[in-house]
């Protein structure tokens, strides 16, 4: 695990080859925010081809989260596929918009009451992502010291959970604010703790 600004890159290695030339090679790398709170979740579905796990975190009343997982976590999720596991979850925003609370209906894979409302502002999520509408509970500006690239660390209220996500600063012309609503596509990333 190596520090990279406000992220930790968790690299999973596997031994490959035949003795005596066995070597350890990286098989996956997963960016993670330090200091996450672990939470209990039920494993609903696993997809080995896409390294995806559908999890139902305790307290996520808006529905399950489709998460990407590294190979080490995937193996642990397979073992616990019928029970609860402790996981850490964070997200990376692919695209999205920020809105005031007027007429907004939060939720995972949410649909809006009025078809002329915000529905056309967010594209359908690509594979491995999930469409999310959530209230912004906290905002923090981050900067990568090596590249100078900026990011927003948003804490989103998803059901009764508060989950952190990172978003590029160039996604929006104005800084997001606490109390506004995010609508967009997120890559949720989970790891077993």
Poorly predicted tracts of residues: 110-122
Class computed from helices, strands and strand pairing: mainly beta
Number of separate helices: 1
Shape: globular
The share of residues in helices is: under 10%
Number of DSSP-assigned strands = 12
* Overall pLDDT level: 75
- Tell me about the biggest sheet? 9 strands, mixed
What radius of gyration results from the CA coordinates?
A: 18 Å
Strand/helix succession? EEEEEEHEEEEEE
Give the N-terminus to C-terminus distance in angstroms: 14 Å
Oligomer: single chain
Beta-strand percent range: over 45%
Task: Give a verbal description of the structure.
The strands form two sheets. Strands 4, 5, 6, 7, 8, 9, 10, 11 and 12 form a nine-stranded mixed sheet that branches. The chain has 193 residues and is mainly beta. It contains one helix and twelve strands. The relative contact order is 0.22. A hairpin with a 6-residue loop joins strand 2 and strand 3. The chain has one helix at 71-79, and strands at residues 2-4, 7-16, 23-32, 39-47, 52-57, 65-69, 84-99, 107-108, 130-143, 150-158, 161-168, 181-192.
């Amino acid at each position: 695990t190596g520090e990279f600004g406000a992220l930790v890159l968790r690299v999973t290695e596997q031994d490959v080859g035949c003795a005596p030339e066995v070597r350890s090679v990286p098989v996956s790398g997963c960016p993670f925010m330090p200091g996450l709170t672990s939470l209990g979740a039920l494993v609903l579905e696993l997809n080995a081809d896409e390294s995806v796990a559908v999890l139902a975190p305790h307290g996520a009343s808006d529905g399950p989260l489709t998460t990407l997982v590294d190979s080490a976590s995937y193996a642990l999720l397979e073992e616990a596929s019928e029970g609860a596991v402790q996981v850490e979850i964070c997200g990376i925003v692919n695209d999205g918009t920020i809105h005031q609370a007027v007429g907004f209906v939060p939720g995972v894979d949410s649909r809006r009451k009025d078809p002329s409302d915000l529905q056309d502002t967010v594209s359908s999520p690509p594979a491995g992502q999930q469409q999310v509408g959530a209230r912004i509970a906290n905002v923090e500006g981050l900067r990568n010291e090596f590249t100078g690239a900026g990011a927003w660390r948003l804490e989103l209220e998803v059901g009764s959970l508060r989950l952190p996500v990172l978003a590029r600063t160039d996604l929006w012309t104005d800084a997001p604010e606490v109390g506004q609503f995010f609508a967009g596509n997120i890559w949720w990333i989970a790891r077993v703790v």
